[in-house]
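Figure 6 in text form: structure in, sequence out.
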């Protein structure tokens, strides 16, 4: 299984990344079916299977309940075996998301994530956009804070999980890594992928399988489509089902 470069960051990632929102949160999520958060034994088994399959990319966030803390407690193997992507800006409490992209909050959030993950660095930290991408990048203090954290060595790369084409293009220009939406049903952000490829920036894809709404028979077609796009480093797919994880990995790595 061949790893892919995450742009010019020096980080190499597996084509398939494991999204971990389901390890810590099952409220106000957009999946088609309700689910129970797995217990520690099931999480260890899932992460161990990911490791065995050659998956090194993990996507988490403070907004994913206690996902970060569970990874910090339960992640098998060596820290260097994993590429951890977390986020700043969005917080989930009381059944609602709240956003804060200020300089000071960004610093505090990453410091808390480091404690939760029990690590002294995070591979990439992305701005968890509320949809107003360009305003966040131009007016908030989050980018300056992330740059300082890079200089400190607390994070290796910074970027944005964007929600608009204009914002994604701006993030490509201003940061190291962009996470954009692309799938068989939604292709509006392909210009962001092309820009990232042209500028050698890291490109991660979210909602590649339409947040679980894609029909099972179309998974291989969907992944083939994603990896045919320019500059794609990896696709984040969230699952707590070992059979789904193995099947997705086989389709990515075949």
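Output sequence:
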């Amino acid at each position: 299984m061949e790893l892919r470069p995450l742009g010019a960051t020096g980080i190499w990632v597996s084509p398939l990344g494991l999204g971990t929102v389901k390890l810590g949160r099952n409220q106000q999520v957009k999946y088609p079916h309700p689910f129970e958060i797995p217990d520690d034994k099931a999480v260890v088994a899932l992460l161990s299977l990911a490791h065995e399959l050659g998956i090194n990319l993990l996507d988490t966030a403070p907004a994913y309940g206690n996902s970060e803390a569970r990874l910090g407690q339960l992640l098998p193997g060596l820290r260097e075996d994993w590429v951890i992507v977390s986020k700043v800006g969005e917080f989930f409490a009381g059944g609602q998301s709240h956003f804060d992209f200020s300089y000071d909050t960004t610093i505090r959030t990453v410091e808390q994530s480091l404690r939760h993950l029990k690590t002294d660095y995070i591979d990439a930290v992305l701005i968890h956009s509320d949809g107003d991408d360009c305003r966040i990048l131009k007016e908030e203090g989050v980018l300056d804070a992330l740059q300082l954290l890079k200089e400190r060595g607390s994070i290796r790369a910074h970027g944005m999980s964007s929600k608009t084409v204009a914002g994604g293009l701006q993030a490509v220009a201003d940061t190291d890594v962009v996470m954009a939406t692309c799938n068989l049903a939604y292709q509006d952000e392909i210009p962001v992928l092309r820009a990232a490829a042209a500028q050698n920036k890291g490109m991660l894809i979210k909602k590649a399988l339409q947040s679980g709404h894609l029909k099972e028979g179309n998974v291989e077609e969907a992944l083939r489509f994603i990896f045919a796009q320019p500059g794609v480093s990896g696709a984040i797919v969230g699952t707590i089902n070992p059979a789904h994880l193995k099947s997705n990995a086989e389709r990515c790595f075949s």
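Caption detail: The two ends are 8 Å apart (CA to CA).
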